Amino acid sequence: SEKEAYEEAKHVIDVLDGRHLDLPIAYDFEETYFSDGSISRMHDMSKQDRTKMALTFCQEINKNNMDAVIYTNLDWTENYYDMDKLKKYPVWFAQYADTPEYEGPFVMWQYTDTGAVNGIEHPVDLDIMFIRKNNQN
Known about the structure:
This protein is of the alpha/beta class and 137 residues long. The protein has helices at 2-16, 47-63, 74-79; strands at 25-28, 68-73, 91-94, 108-115, 124-129. Helix 2 links the parallel strand 1 and strand 2. The termini are far apart.
């Protein structure tokens, strides 16, 4: 619900306790599938309700002088969010492909979940960031 999205944002703010982050705080709404085959209560939510939750979370993060980003994929941009209503917030787009298909603007692109990083024994997500840090030209 919007109330829960607000509570999540407040929890993040409380945990950070005034610390500055170099990157935005991501709102990542994902379906939950349980081992018995059932799906979470989020499954039947409307596009409007999902969009309102994303707005509520991001607005609260921004009100507290932090940056928010919406983590999403092509399916969600087309079917689960009203991206016109979310255009104020940057997008972290996930699509495991050579070229992203999303036509809207995005500030980060997660392009694989099979990357390799020294010191990590299993495959990891890899991303490209298009955000300019304040101290860099």
